[in-house]
Amino acid sequence: MSEVKMYDIEAAAGDGRSLEQEEVESTLYFPTEQLAAQGLDPAQVVGIKVRGDSMDGTLADGDWVLVDRSRREPKPEGVFLLLVHGERRIKRVQRVAGGAWLLISDNEHYQPEMIKPEEMRDVEILGRCEIRIGRVS
Q: Where is the Peptidase S24/S26A/S26B/S26C domain (predicted)?
């Protein structure tokens, strides 16, 4: 069995602190072979509680998502845990012409945010969101 630490990013202090410095809300245990079958290294996986409705349609408020911290490049494109101006967010990341990124909310009520190459110093990918744990509606 592999231990996966679960964090509530809304309760996190933010401002560039690593997750390891945050309080662990709970710990879940997964069969190591099941994580490996999903291409995940248990030592690189953390759980994050989703807050807000910006990713509705993919992730709901209160869902948990397993984040692979070894995948920190938007290749291929996907849903990532990011640090944007000191704030942790979960967004779909799409690379666009000129080296910019679009941060996309799956909820159509939110507009995409363009991160230009000169603004990249204020953005860090903390990991790729791989597995959702949530209520069936």
A: 10-128
CA atoms within 13 A on the CB side of 106: 16
Q: Is the dihedral of CA 86, 111, 103, 122 positive or negative?
A: negative
Residue 128, token pair as written in the block: 């790729």
Q: Using H for helix, E for strand and C for coil, what is the string for the chain?
A: CEEEEEEECCCCCCCCCCHHHCCCCEEEEECHHHHHHCCCCHHHEEEEECCCCCCCCCCCCCCEEEEECCCCCCCCCEEEEEEECCEEEEEEEEECHHHCEEEECCCCCCCCEEECHHHHHHEEEEEEEEEEECCCC
Q: What is the pTM of this model?
A: 0.88
